[in-house]
Amino acid sequence: MDAAVRELSYAQAIQEAMAIAMDMDERVFLMGEDIGVYGGAFQVTGDLVERYGTDRVIDTPISELGGAGVAVGAAVTGMRPIFEFQFSDFATLAMEQIVNQAAKMRFMLGGEVSVPVVMRFPAGSGTGAAAQHSQSLEAWLGHVPGLKVIQPATPHDAKGMLLAAVADPDPVMIFEHKLLYKMKGHVPEGHYTVPIGKAEIRREGRDLTIVATSIMVQKALDAAAALEGEGIDIEVVDLRTIRPIDRQTIIDSVKKTSRLLCVYEAVKTLGIGAEVSALVAESEAFDYLDAPIVRLGGAETPIPYNPDLEKATVPQVPDIIAAARDLVKGVR
Amino acid sequence: MAGASKAVADSRANLPFVYRQYSPEQLRQVLHKMYLIRRFEEGAEECYMRGLIHGTMHLSIGQEASAMGICMPLAEDDQITSTHRGHGHCIAKGAEVSRMFAEFFGKTTGYCKGRGGSMHIADVAKGNLGANGIVAGGIPIAVGAALSSKMMKTGKVVVSFFGDGANNEGAFHEALNMAAIWKLPVIFVCENNGYGMSTSTARSTAVKNIAERAAAYSMPGVIVNGNIFSEVAEASFKAVERARAGEGPTLIESKTYRHRGHSKSDRNRYRTKEEIEDWMANRDPITLFETELRDFGFIDDHGIQAIRDAVAKEIADGIEFARASPAPEIATLENYVYTEHA
How far apart are CA B249 and CA B238, in angstroms? Predict the structure, then answer.
């Protein structure tokens, strides 16, 4: 197949990245619940256990706290674990090890150790899994110095950022939206990395900057395409990393467009949109603003089961279109 | 450590384990280190009272035989995870008291460059992966270190120290289970000093002995008198042999007592003066070991005094080193958060 047009799903891209990482470095191994013969709850590890064996694709008991701690301990002592949470919601069971240990160990020990652990979190709503299997908790971890937190939005980035994460000496938390797993896109063969801490401008525009994360990037692009016919020219910034955040790309974009809309799935209050808004308000881009900053985030509610309610909980393309149009037309 | 020769060993055939296993010089070094732990903590406490050390600290005075006994059969590259009451473990694993004092004083020459303090004291070069401010926080980390040992075939054994309070944390149970199913070279050492802060094990723990928890994870559960060095060292020796042979983990419950309160805020309202005085007067681990050494002819009063004098000097020198060391520059505040800033 022509490498230039090769397409993989987001899940396949992650799986390929893990295989490449294991081929390149014998210290890399996978841990998680039902990631072996079952292939992972979302089939991301798939058949990797057949290629790498149960010593490198390790099924853990249902012990998120202990499992995360084992991954931290292995990382500190020379291994390169990739730990899969079955659902990002289960990070709540492992917050102690993630927040108190993985994030702080290097600092507390005065730089005497590194914690090169990668943790993967299938996140987000849209699967009918209700309140405990649908959350977007990335901002919780984004609040913790010592962690790096990324949200790849495309198959290309899912592979490249995972390979960057594995090579990173510090703990990297990857939030993967479950609805993206089937998304197809161009994924180059072989090893490549996409840098952590660097946002990507997905679409250039003059009238409005939309800073979006994860699945909201595609929705923002769809909204931008729809508004093209109305003569509204939108720039879409895929944040990709929420810690460390790429301030400059955001600031430069807002200086160009003079309007900012933040779109993210997590609960709106105290979320990544607040951070993006504040960093723009604190920067020289503030003087360029022609309209108030607007945030579109998740409703102030747990994710409900009913599909219509579930959909209404998080920003959808029409919501983005309406907000963008209002901003540019000066309704806000 | 090297064992005693066969002829010497035969002459000690009726003595407890450590007197058969280790040389007189090694045993005198143990007494030296037990004094070093005791005097280090007394020195730290005094510096705290005088305002030279801030924050808080958790003293292990009364638990020295436990730390020394467990670490006795460990090699230098074997690893430990420790607890908030971890000064003894750190010294037992080979740390220098000068750099420990420097850490308590918040100085750049400290083991954590002044970022960790008492509660995160570590000595990675000697295999101490760090004390921990979270009860049971170090237990899964020790299991992960043991997984590394097994995967990289380094032959290292990992010891996880924790207190009786940790045995009711979920991390304890999850970690023991994983260590058992994967047969990892790790030793779980519960230093049961009778109280999790103010709550006695009788009030907090459904089993009479924490070692009984081992049955649930299909590993040996061993109870030792944590104030008798030889008993602790013998149990540790067997657990280390089992771990190195690939036979899996052991849970050792070392029953001991802390003479001091939980931390500097403790008013000691949950135990009687009589109870504390009884432990101090009749079951002090250093007194017990020193008396045995003397009775068995391994040391005389002159030798004991020489150890005490040497330790006193080491402590005084350590405090002086800490006082004279530089404090971190404020500009270095964000160092060590991420690796590239180091």
Answer: 11
Tell me the average pLDDT across A203-208: 98
The verdict on a CB contact (< 8 Å) between B144 and A72 is: yes
- Known catalytic residue at A189: no
Q: Cβ distance A67 to B174 under 8 Å?
A: yes
Q: Which of A87, A159, A156 is nearest to A124 (CA)?
A: A87
**Residue A309 C-alpha, separation from nearest chain B C-alpha, in angstroms:** 36
Domains of chain A, CATH where assigned: 3-186 (3.40.50.970), 200-329 (3.40.50.920)
Residue B204's domain is classified under what CATH number? 3.40.50.970
Tell which residue, A134, A158, A135, A138, has the closest CA to residue A148: A138
Number of domains in chain B: 1
CA B174/CA B166 separation, integer angstroms? 12
The token pair at A156 is 């290309």
3-state SS assignment for residue B211? helix
Phi/psi of residue B334, nearest 5 degrees: -90, 5
Q: What is the rounded average pLDDT of the residues B210-216?
A: 98
Tell me the per-residue pLDDT of A282-299, one tens digit each, with 9 for 90 and over. 999 999 999 999 999 999
Q: Find which of A70, A113, A114, A243 to mutate to test the B interface (most B CBs within 10 Å of its CB).
A: A70
Q: Between A66, A74, A96, which is nearest B175 by CB?
A: A66
The range of the structural domain enclosing residue B273 comes to 21-321
A296-328 pLDDT tens trace: 999 999 999 999 999 999 999 999 999 999 999
Do residues B66 and B233 lie in contact, with contact meaning Cβ atoms separated by under 8 Å?
Answer: no
Give the pairing type, strands B79-81 and A7-9: unpaired
Q: How distant is the alpha carbon of residue B250 from its chain centre?
A: 17
User: Are residues B80 and B89 in contact, defined by beta-carbon separation less than 8 angstroms?
Assistant: yes
| Residue of A33, A64, A84, A265 marked catalytic | A64
Tokens of A296: 């579109």
- Determine contact: A266 vs chain B, CB below 8 A: no
User: A147 pLDDT exceeds 70?
Assistant: yes
Q: Quick one: pLDDT at residue B12? A: 82
Secondary structure tally for chain B: helices H, strands E:
13, 7
ipTM of the shown complex: 0.96
